[in-house]
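Input record, target 12 of the design panel.
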């Protein structure tokens, strides 16, 4: 009787452990998906704000000309847009690393999601084996010729 109770308890513990592992795995996947979504949103906002370089201009004396729409933004948002637009006006070797990193993160996430949606790729590979090549020159008979 005691062995039967122990078996039942062990089975219940095992079932509960499996349920917890499944829930834990699903929670981890959901957390990773949320982090990925946040990274994509942040990177996209940086890249989109960088594309505002075309709207921004400069006077001949170097003062910046900002679009009228940017004047309605809060000061911190306006300063951010100006900083990012100026960064894109720089030579590519001088662009801040954060801008390049945001672009690479955005492209990486988008490529990964696109690859997931296309499914598995099947490669058509055929293995061909060739026999060892035969000698090109036939063996010649050697004849001793006396002079």
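The sequence produced for target 12 reads:
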């Amino acid at each position: 009787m005691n062995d039967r109770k122990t078996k039942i308890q062990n089975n219940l513990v095992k079932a509960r452990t499996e349920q917890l592992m499944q829930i834990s795995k699903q929670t981890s996947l959901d957390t990773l998906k949320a982090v990925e979504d946040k990274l994509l949103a942040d990177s996209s906002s940086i890249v989109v704000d960088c594309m505002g370089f075309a709207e921004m201009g400069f006077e001949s004396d170097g003062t910046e000309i900002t679009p009228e729409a940017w004047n309605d933004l809060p000061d911190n948002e306006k300063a951010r847009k100006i900083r990012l637009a100026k960064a894109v006006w720089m030579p590519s070797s001088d662009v801040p690393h954060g801008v390049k990193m945001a672009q690479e993160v955005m492209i990486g996430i988008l490529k990964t999601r696109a690859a997931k949606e296309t499914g598995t790729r099947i490669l058509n590979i055929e293995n061909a084996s060739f026999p060892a090549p035969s000698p090109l020159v036939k063996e010649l008979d050697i004849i001793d010729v006396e002079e």
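The chain is about 60% helix and 5% strand.
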